[in-house]
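Same chain as my last thread, 246 residues:
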Amino acid sequence: MRLTVLGGCGAWPTARQACSGYLVEHAGFRLLIDPGYATMPRLLTRLDVGAVDAVLVSHGHPDHCADLNPLLRARALRDDPAPPLAVYAPHKALDAVLALDRPGMLAQALRLHEFSPGDRFGIGPFTADTVLLPHFVPNAGIRLTTPDGVLVYTGDTGPSPDVPRLAEGADLLVSEATYPRRVPEEDARFLLTAELAGRYAQQAGAARLLLTHLWPGTDRATALEAAGEGFTGPVGVAVPDLVVGL
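reply #2:
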């Protein structure tokens, strides 16, 4: 299994960083997780839009799913339309992004598979286990398993004992870490710190931790230092074109 970071910026993209977006490949299958703002151009540097086999969305905030629209347009409106794309998302999470075009325009471009966080299902060679994690809208933490490894992605989440449970023994934990050490009080139930992400990774016995969804302008070294105080394994930050093999 191989993960390629397309972007990892929280809230909005910057000149150098797209929002959340991760390409996960195994056994020739290409799964795009969370096509957030500005991830489409990064994806196109690596493969044709028709080469994406499936999309998995953690929740409906646009910094995690907005670029599903141009992805579907590029597949459906070209001279040789691609087959319908399998898209997995929590119930109603994609209502807004799928309503950007006139009704029916992209209906043949996708096969929408809605799920409830807590469900288990297959996506190509992956087994996906999901859990509801606390955020402003329903958010699915995701555990992807193959015979070769386990990848866990929190989506956006606040503090929850379900994070280390979901990540138990994972080869890689990709964790939201919007702030290094303290979340503003009004958002404290729904966002995570790098410091707590590190502690969760240690509790889970994860082999490796990748911090993502850092607030734009956050100093990466500060986030890495905060996570490293609680986690003894390797820690990185999700930046474009980073490739991690599991």
